[in-house]
Fold:
Amino acid sequence: MENKLKVAFICVHNSCRSQIAEALGKYFAGDIFESYSAGTEAKPQINQDAVRLMKELYDIDMEKTQYSKLLDKIPAVDIVITMGCNVECPYLPCKYREDWGLDDPTGKSDEEFKKVISIIEAKIKELKERLKS
Structure:
C-alpha cells in the first residue's frame, strides 16, 4: 500500500472553511489523500454554524474528530490548499500549493454557508480526480 498524499487545508483561523474542507476531504477523498487543516491562529471552537450545517448536510460531526489548531500541530504535507486569505495566507513547505479563493462565510446566512460548503465539496472531488490520475 503506497503512502497517500497528505493535503493541508489552511486559513488564518482554522475554524470554518479549512475545517469544512478537512471534513469533506476525509468524507469524499479519504481513499486518495489524507486531509488536515490548520491556521496561524487557533479558535476555542469550530464555527458553530459550520458544525450544524455539516451535520445537517452530510451527517458529519466535525467536533468529534476535529479541532482548531496551529500549523505546527499537523504533519509535513505534500499539498497545501489555502482557502482564500490573500496576503495573510500562512506558508507551509509543500510540493504543490493552490489557493481556492473562498470568502469566509462566518457571520453570514445559512445560504452563504451552504454556497461555500458546496464549492468546497466540488473542489475536493476535483482535487481527488486530479490526484488519482
Observations:
- The chain has one domain: 9-132.
